[in-house]
Amino acid sequence: MNYGKGFIAITLGLVALVGCTFVAPARTPIEQFQFHSPDDPKRAIVLLPGAGQWVEEYQSQGLVDAIVQCDAQTMVVGVEAYFAYYRTRSIVDRLREDVVLPLRQQGIEEVWLLGTSMGGVGTFLYRAKHPEDIDGIIAIAPFLGDREELDAYLQGDPDEADNKMAIVWDDLRDRATQSPRIVLGFGSDDSLAPGIQWLSPRLPSEDVIERAGGHDWETWSAMWPQLLERAMSCSNGS
What we know:
Elements: H1 5-18, E1 32-36, E2 43-48, H2 57-60, H3 63-70, E3 74-79, H4 83-87, H5 91-105, E4 110-116, H6 118-129, E5 136-140, H7 147-154, H8 166-175, E6 181-187, H9 193-199, E7 208-211, H10 217-221, H11 224-232
Parallel strand pairs: 2-3, 2-4, 4-5, 5-6, 6-7
Antiparallel strand pairs: 1-3
């Protein structure tokens, strides 16, 4: 699978900002962590990090605790889905073969993917390729490509006909309200907001959480309770 030049440029820029620490290799199988593993879980949430993030930050930023508070019987899995998996075009295959299908084989009845920024792209790519595998995605401040390229593609510009983000754009244009469900969150001042605001009107309004803020943990962590309530209908009274 290929990816758009806008995605590669932004991700490489983020990697350059944080240094080579996050240019980890694409391993097979993909590394994963069991952040929360209850007895006999029926639902799992798989966490995909953004560019320049460690997947463990979901724990330090309070998301894992928020999920457990929402529903203590939900399994929480973190995957080291770093930039190399996107660069090598293996992100969807590794998630499917190493994470999602094994969860189903364990008897998990409901699987959600959650990603911030670059991780949001991963959730959309998976949804476009294998919608039958998952029940929903929580996309937080997802990168949706360059807005000018997106608009040109949707208007039929032949120069954008082979844009590598087309698989995501086509899926979201044609199937945004179909299964698997999308719950979307973002800050109104996010630098990626133009692309996100193309998607948000295509979703049920109750599944879109927008609040003041930018592309940062402070903004996202304030959304955890609302996003989880929309996706999971919290059973623990949160």
